[in-house]
Structures are given as C-alpha cells and as structure tokens.
Amino acid sequence: MTGIVIREAHFPGRAPIEAYGNGGFRFADMSHRGSILCLPSGIYGWEPANPDTLGVDDFARLIDEAADIQILLVGSGPMLKPIAPDLRALLKEHGISADPMSTGAAVRTYNVLLAEDRAVAAALVAVE
C-alpha cells in the first residue's frame, strides 16, 4: 500500500473561469486555491516565484506552447502591474502579445476571448 500521492494541479482542457477570489478560482465545476496558468493544453496550478514581479522563469510552461498562443492576459492581482521588459521581449520573440491587467479584468477578458475561440492564454495571480 502506498501513501498519498500529490499530483500537479492540472485540468486537461480549456474552460471559462466561473469565479475568482478568496485566494483561488472556480472552473469546470472545480476549485483551485492559488494562482493558475490557462493554456491551450489545460489549466495548471501556477506558483510564480514572486507574484509582485513576474519574471521569465515563471512562464517556461507557456513558452513550450507558444506556437498555439497569440494573446497572453496577465492578471497581476488586485491592481495592474507592468510586465518586465525582458519578459515582454521573450513573449514578443515568440509572437505573443501580452496584456497586463488586474486579475478580475483578465478573467473577464479571458472568458470573452475563449468564447470567441481565440488563441488566448492567461496567467492569473490569485486575489483575496
């Protein structure tokens, strides 16, 4: 008999975000505590090194799927925070347009673009 197996948080599909707040998100009739990365391959639990200053290393998984992404919405918490110049340059190099905004605005915009079947991804920092 084995002990509890902790698996990486991953929902294998695209789904609109039903709710956010209280430190997490609801989607596909499930909930996740913490930040999330919404990619073409699914929704992943995401732990940026420092949510206040997102860096290149926080987006390695996204870059792996860059060919399927045209727009990245960066929900930086309760307030808009600019994207670091080196991160913006990396995204541009991969043909991805990055739009920083508050997490609430990013969730709403993601849901609209997802409904339009656009090549969108979202990096969403959890808010209380």
Automatic annotation (TrEMBL):
InterPro entries attached to this UniProt entry: MTH938-like_sf (IPR036748), NDUFAF3/AAMDC (IPR007523)
UniProt-listed CDD domains: Mth938-like
Pfam families registered for this protein in UniProt: DUF498 (PF04430)
Protein name: Mth938-like domain-containing protein
Source organism: Mesorhizobium denitrificans
Phylogenetic placement of the source organism: Bacteria, Pseudomonadati, Pseudomonadota, Alphaproteobacteria, Hyphomicrobiales
